[in-house]
């Protein structure tokens, strides 16, 4: 699916955010990620608080999978929590998400396995002034080696890895690529804006596709 977001239209200031891998009601993730919470209920409260401190009601959030491990008796809490979250949420499926459950949740404007987000914004350029700029984010729960318009400056946002690709031999995956793991545990359990992603990866030059 493709989502076109034009931030140059209208009087309201709208932002676009990314996040993933909340793992609500997953007790073991506290240990696996070394999450700084007393228990999962404390984690839920902090995630909700930081989301709503960051995201405004008109903002757009791309959630990149692995929402909840809730049992039947806990699913109502997840639904109620989503209702309290600010913004318009587009959901990308993760390996721990069941489609039949996700489709029943409130607040989700779309559900898919892969999402391309094209954001049109105004950018100031020295000597030129304000100009319209289009930025493409290719979003999937899993990291992928190559993505649409990679050689033309697009970005790839993923979750799933909990920061593990940043260590050892696999760390080279991020070298000279406009790729970011948007897992909540890597960003202080707070959604990260598209402009923050661009700034974090500003040192990466566009990898030009060369042919003999």
Labels describing this entry:
212 residues, Purple Acid Phosphatase, chain A, domain 2, five-stranded mixed β-sheet
Structural class: alpha/beta
Distance between the termini: 33 Å
SS element count, helices: 5
Helical content (DSSP H or I, runs of 4+): 10-25%
Low-confidence stretches: none
Our count of domains comes out at: 1
The total of beta strands comes to 10
What is the mean predicted local confidence, pLDDT? 93
Blueprint of the fold:
Elements (H helix, E strand, L loop, with lengths): L1 E5 L9 E4 L7 H6 L7 H15 L5 E4 L11 H10 L3 E5 L6 H4 L5 E5 L1 E12 L3 E12 L14 E4 L20 E3 L10 E2 H7 L12
Description:
The protein is an alpha/beta fold and 212 residues long. It has a single domain (2-200), classed as 4-Layer Sandwich (Purple Acid Phosphatase, chain A, domain 2), CATH 3.60.21.10. 20% of the residues lie in helices and 26% in strands. The chain is built from five helices and ten strands. It has helices spanning 27-32, 40-54, 75-84, 99-102, 194-200; strands at residues 2-6, 16-19, 60-63, 88-92, 108-112, 114-125, 129-140, 155-158, 179-181, 192-193. The strands form two sheets. The protein has a five-stranded mixed sheet with strand order 1-6-7-8-9, with no helix packed on it. A five-stranded mixed sheet has the order 5-4-3-2-10. A hairpin with a 3-residue loop joins strand 6 and strand 7 (129-140). The longest helix is centred in the N-terminal third of the chain and has 15 residues, at 40-54. The model has no long low-confidence stretch (mean pLDDT 93).
